[in-house]
Amino acid sequence: MKVLVPVKRVIDYNIKPRVKADGTGVETAGVKMSMNPFDEIAVEEAVRLKEKGVVTEIVAVSIGEPKAQDTLRTAMAMGADRSILVETEAVTEPLAVAKVLKALVEKEKPDLVILGKQAIDDDMNATGQMLAGLLGWPQGTFASKVELHDGKATVTREIDGGLQTVELALPAIVTADLRLNEPRYASLPNIMKARKKPMEKITPADVDVDMTPRLSIVSVAEPAGRKAGIKVDSAAELVAKLRNEAKVI
Amino acid sequence: MTVLVLLDHENGAIRQASRSAVAAASKLGDVDVLVVGRNAAEAAQAAAKLPGVKKVLSAADATSADELAEPVAALLASLADGYSHILGASSANSKNILPRAAALLDVQPIPDIVEVIDADTFVRPIYAGSALATVKSSDAKKVLTVRASAFDPVATEGGSAPVESVATPAGEDKSKFIGTELSQSERPELESARVVVSGGRGMQNEENFKLLEPLADRLGAAIGASRAAVDAGFVPNDYQVGQTGKIVAPELYIAMGISGAIQHLAGMKDSKVIVAVNKDPEAPIFQIADYALVGDLFEVLPALEAELDKAG
Fold first, then answer.
1. What class, spelled out in words, does domain B195-311 have in CATH?
2. Which of A186, B18, B224, B293 has the fewest Cβ atoms within 10 Å of its own Cβ atom?
3. What is the ipTM of this complex?
4. Chain A residues with CB inside 8 Å of B308's CB?
5. What is the model's pTM?
């Protein structure tokens, strides 16, 4: 069984993003970038399925600027067998990304695509669902558990108020939630080995996808800051303030 | 312009987050709503009473009974012709279904809007709420999800819309509902509570987490948690407040033993009043707290309850 795992290069989750002074976006120059945390979980799940003997090949894919190859090397150091970089300077909107992925799915014919549930930069939470829609495949989003058996995937999903279990006929799309697993660190020998693993480079034009964004950014602004708070010394003072000053209790 | 809103319901009642979505939709045009699923008939009756709703579409057929993404997205796409915008709450249900429907319509969805500027232009948070992006869509139809905390929900009574049956398009049977496992709670729903008391890693264990209950009871509050508390197994994950959990904006948010990582702040920093109790005076949560109390929460908690009791 073959698995495709799309990964995205984003600003590292520990960094507080700064809005550019001209309001056109968020400063990315000279900022530490990493693999989107949800995508690490997706790669880890694919690698675990391979270690169980269920999966035979893992193909990592990234769409973006040339530096996204660092993210693919990380995926290969974690255990992906090979990778495809779709090079573009364009904005990677989920609709266009889903179209590129659809073309790659038709070429590579995986049985399962595992994505992260959302990228922590645009917070869209859409690409997996859109890819499933474009392919007409079933989807198991926000997965906290995935089991493969007899041409089916049993997926436990995190929903509002608890968990839901669905059964999907393969091929299918799964998007990983935080609790699916604990991703491994790439070891130094594996990082070295990953350098020798194959990376194919193509462009969106090669798969006939127009990357023109449907959404234009009018402006990006800092949210309104909160007024400075005050320090209280005791529970009694706190209750008094909440009651008489803030009037919330 | 007519707008279609997919409603989430529970035991026949329309969820508050969906009533916020109806409020956002009312800013765009006439509002029709769609209910699907097992209690669709009951939910349709409840939906018909929402003020501002012009028509209720109800799909009570077996195909969409489990509200799975595959049939419901196909249903939305089949209904899309008459609508300029399709909306849902930013709930797990809508986030599962709407992007799929958008793909079927060849539209880029706009998730989690906090403001409607005009029919094409919306404001949404990006980077865990560290920035607000104003985006303009060039798509002919807009598919949007609505952040509940940004729009006051419409009332549950006041309207009287007609109900019309719609049928889910027959599709291939590629997904099957197996079951759900819901957390039991007598407390107010986290996303709609007026007061939220949240605990973090500082609560130390599952037993201690229960110490928050008397305070929550006293304040009529919902109980929330940071990811650290969820990962440590103190509480189930649907308690989680943050970028990957629930987004709340109550009148009062009390953070107990929560350091205040940006992923957590993303879920609660629009609360009206924030109280933080932490023994580390350098904890980032204090930077956004209106009232900061540096101290051991195990001493503060009983003192707080005593004060509340004393004051009546």
1. alpha beta
2. A186
3. 0.96
4. 239, 249
5. 0.95
